[in-house]
């Protein structure tokens, strides 16, 4: 098999860690000797042990003289465990193939340098584009000090998310909803605005998929005026719940949610809303690399207005609600088409009775 084929294997292994290993990157490693896979691993729950450690342990003595395929440069710094680059040297690996250099200042080429200084052949950049997509959250946190943001919209054919009375369950069918749960599972955090939390009182947990680890549930509520009784409050013990609020939030509300087990964090307000950029920075500082935003309309607009959406996933249902229905995105203040946020289509497919399309910011804006 070629280097590209073995790297595809390593990348597939690495994806198993998405949503489960933050703040660390989700890495995959495959060790090949004599044309046979002798060890494989991926970053484990909570970020330790690293993929290379798992694969080397599985390979044992067979790692000597072997080739290791790693989806990200092996780490070079001492943390809770020794550097993976040094572990590969000690194991006698003869060749290392990687997809990307790690931009973390503690690594940034030093892992590759350790390997080369030990006489190990190093090949880099194999399936780099795929690796960058997989590592988008980790790269964003390191290079932009904010997590990658996926915005999910589930709308009717005319772009509505609820009837005039606010009825929204369910716009899309069960297959689309199951797909959304899988997407939640592959992100570190699920994020909604306070308006959606008040209107829907959602649990935001992953259900029906045997999940043994829940994403962090994040609600941006400026006044922290959330229902103190209902599904959200009752589900605090089901997974981490972070409530981001402004200085207007009353002390008794903060105390009540804290007593329930939620984490309350104050965020600056800009233009009457929580500062979206600062909010994401707070999440990054707490280790979050991948955020799955599920609305509502005003909060989605605040992210789109300042270019903070990295991926837009749109589910379309075969219904029409008309002008009196609630729009999927709040006011953007767009006066000309050239000023509208623009996205390029990446993928589209049928999900049960609905459609799903994936979009990313267009290289050509304006």
Automatic annotation (TrEMBL):
Binding site for Zn(2+): 50, 75, 84
Keyword Coiled coil on entry: no
Cofactor entry: Zn(2+)
Enzyme Commission (EC) number: 3.5.4.26, 1.1.1.193
PROSITE patterns: CYT_DCMP_DEAMINASES_1, CYT_DCMP_DEAMINASES_2
Cofactor annotation comment: Binds 1 zinc ion.
Record GO terms (molecular function): 5-amino-6-(5-phosphoribosylamino)uracil reductase activity; diaminohydroxyphosphoribosylaminopyrimidine deaminase activity; NADP binding; zinc ion binding
UniProt-annotated catalytic positions: 52 (proton donor)
Catalytic activity: 2,5-diamino-6-hydroxy-4-(5-phosphoribosylamino)-pyrimidine + H2O + H(+) = 5-amino-6-(5-phospho-D-ribosylamino)uracil + NH4(+); 5-amino-6-(5-phospho-D-ribitylamino)uracil + NADP(+) = 5-amino-6-(5-phospho-D-ribosylamino)uracil + NADPH + H(+)
Positions of substrate binding: 168, 184, 204, 207, 294
Residues given in the record as NADP(+) binding sites: 154, 170, 196, 200, 296-302
GO biological process, one term: riboflavin biosynthetic process
Keyword line: Hydrolase, Metal-binding, Multifunctional enzyme, NADP, Oxidoreductase, Riboflavin biosynthesis, Zinc
All copies of domain CMP/dCMP-type deaminase, residue ranges: 1-122
CDD domains the record matches: Riboflavin_deaminase-reductase
Pathway: Cofactor biosynthesis; riboflavin biosynthesis; 5-amino-6-(D-ribitylamino)uracil from GTP: step 2/4; Cofactor biosynthesis; riboflavin biosynthesis; 5-amino-6-(D-ribitylamino)uracil from GTP: step 3/4
Protein function: Converts 2,5-diamino-6-(ribosylamino)-4(3h)-pyrimidinone 5'-phosphate into 5-amino-6-(ribosylamino)-2,4(1h,3h)-pyrimidinedione 5'-phosphate.
Family: In the N-terminal section; belongs to the cytidine and deoxycytidylate deaminase family. In the C-terminal section; belongs to the HTP reductase family.
NCBIfam families, sorted: eubact_ribD, ribD_Cterm
Stated name of the protein: Riboflavin biosynthesis protein RibD
Organism expressing this protein natively: Palleronia marisminoris
């Amino acid at each position: 098999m070629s280097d590209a084929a073995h790297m595809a294997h390593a990348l597939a292994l690495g994806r198993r860690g998405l949503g489960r290993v933050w703040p660390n990157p989700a890495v995959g490693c495959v060790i090949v000797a004599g044309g046979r896979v002798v060890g494989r691993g991926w970053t484990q729950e909570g970020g330790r042990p690293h993929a290379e450690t798992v694969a080397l342990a599985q390979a044992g003595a067979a790692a000597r003289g072997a080739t290791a395929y790693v989806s990200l440069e092996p780490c070079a710094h001492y943390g809770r465990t020794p550097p993976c680059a040094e572990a590969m040297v000690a194991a006698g690996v003869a060749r290392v193939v990687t997809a990307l250099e790690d931009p973390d200042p503690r690594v940034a080429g030093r892992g590759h340098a350790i390997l080369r200084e030990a006489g190990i052949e190093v090949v880099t950049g194999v399936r780099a584009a795929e690796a960058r997509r997989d590592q988008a959250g980790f790269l964003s946190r390191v290079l932009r000090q904010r997590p990658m943001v996926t915005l999910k919209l589930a709308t009717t054919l005319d772009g509505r998310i609820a009837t005039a009375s606010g009825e929204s369950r369910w716009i899309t069918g069960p297959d689309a909803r199951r797909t959304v749960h899988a997407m939640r599972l592959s992100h570190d955090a699920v994020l909604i605005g306070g308006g959606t939390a008040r209107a829907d009182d959602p649990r935001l947990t992953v259900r029906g998929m045997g999940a043994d680890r829940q994403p962090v549930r994040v609600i941006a509520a400026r006044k922290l005026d959330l229902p103190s009784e209902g599904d959200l409050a009752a589900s605090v013990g089901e997974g981490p719940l972070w409530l981001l609020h402004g200085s207007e939030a009353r002390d008794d509300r903060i105390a009540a949610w804290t007593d329930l087990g939620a984490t309350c964090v104050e965020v600056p307000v800009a233009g009457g809303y929580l500062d979206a950029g600062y909010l994401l920075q707070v999440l990054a500082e707490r280790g979050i690399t991948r955020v799955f935003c599920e609305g509502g309309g005003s909060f989605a607009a605040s992210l789109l207005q300042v270019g903070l959406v990295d991926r837009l996933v749109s589910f379309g249902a075969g219904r029409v609600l008309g002008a009196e229905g609630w729009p999927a995105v709040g006011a953007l203040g767009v006066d000309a088409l050239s000023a509208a946020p623009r996205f390029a289509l990446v993928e589209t497919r049928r999900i049960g009775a609905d459609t799903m399309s994936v979009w990313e910011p267009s290289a050509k804006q304006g």
